[in-house]
Amino acid sequence: MKIKFFAVLAGAAWVAVGCVKTVSDTNHFATTWSQDSVTGRYQRTIDQVYQASVVVIQNNGVLLDEYIPHDTTNATRSLQGKVNQKDVWIRVQVVDPRITQVDVETRSGWGVSDVELSHQLEKEIALQLAR
To answer: What angle do CA 121, 124, 128 make, to 5 degrees?
Structure first.
């Protein structure tokens, strides 16, 4: 009886958690499916916004990876880092020739979203662009 109970409990836990797609088209463990990303659009080139994103991640934490996501052109770039022991993904893409969009997503090691940190990093990117 106890084994069946724990098997059902383990199955329910397995269903309750899972993997979600990040803004950079990778998968990551998640325990919540709430909003976890923030978007900003700027009248700057993709190179300017991408460099500002790199500077913000390096100033606040550690830059782990820079890459161009699969099935995209050079008009989309992504990076991954760690800030305050949380995983951060940033995607920079061209919306039109004069506007670039940045998406910032953060999750803790337990897969819980952190919208406040996403918002803070997105605003720091905007401030970096204003300099």
So the answer is: 140
Residue 57's nearest CA partner among 111, 94, 105, 11 is: 105
Is residue 15 over pLDDT 50?
no
Q: Is residue 10 assigned to a domain? A: no
* CA–CA distance, 51 with 87 (Å, rounded to integer): 19
Residue 13, SS3?
helix
Kindly state whether residue 28 falls inside one of the protein's structural domains: no
Question: Of the ranges 14-18, 59-63, 112-116, which is most confident?
Answer: 59-63
Backbone angles phi, psi at 42, to 5 degrees: -135, 150
Tally the domains of the chain.
1
